Fold:
Amino acid sequence: MAIKKYTSADKQIWDNFLSISKNATFLFRRDFIEYHGERFIDHSVLIFNSKKKLLALFPACQKKKTIHSHSGLSYGGIIFHQDIRLHEAKTVFQVLLNYFQSQGFQKIIYKQLPYFYQQYPNYEEDIILYQLKAQLIRKDIGAIIDLQSLRSTTFLRGRSRELDLQKAQNHNLKIIQSNNLSYFWKNILIPNLKTRHQISPTHSLNEITYLVDLFPKNIRFFSVQKNQQIVAGTLIFQTDEVAHAQYIASSELGKKHGALTLLFQHLVRNKYSDFKFFSFGISTENQGKNLNQGLHTWKESFGARAIPHNIYQILI
Structure:
């Protein structure tokens, strides 16, 4: 096998490979990886077999003597060709380790792609990580709804959710899909995150507007409005089979009128009912050390259940 460090000349072959891989999403497209490229030193690589067939991609960046997969993405790992076999996948890992060792790196922080994003089973990765004695260093807790086995008894659990939905319907709230993120970002999302979690959004308004324009089929904004004013909203990152709520926030008026309950009832029961999964994202804080129990319980009230997101350390 042969390995090649990514350059801009490889963009087309990289992006084309994603459509024949077993475990890729639009976050692995080069335009998404590079939208904030100034924050990272990219060290992505392409792995070919002896016949020069592309077998795998590894989105990565470097920091000192460590390779990260990829610090600018929610998830990472090696992207494999959909036809790859176990022995080939093992060789890909070994070639990758040999290459980064030759470049003077000491370890890889390997951020796995959660299983529900995979188009084909990818358990070869788990087998190989075990054989490499990879150390599990972080386990974030996410929450997903399995939309294909969702039952009315598992959706909107609890009297408070039912009351929220009733209030929202009584106050004539409307759900609108648009690209007008400015008001939501400045007046609802940023104040919410600052007050409740003392953090800022991962994306600036300019960055997320740029990404929405770049990926209009994959990134969609849904707002709840009362008298044409936004009172709640969520930004959905959409792949072929998964709808992921990247940001969720509500104004005080929206909370009073149950706006988010109305919104997620619509998204889960109508807009994305044909998808396989609806993801609410992770509920852990402090590098995965602490669970925000209130946040996770809120997600569970919509029928979501806990799933792990594993991050490993591989010593080279």
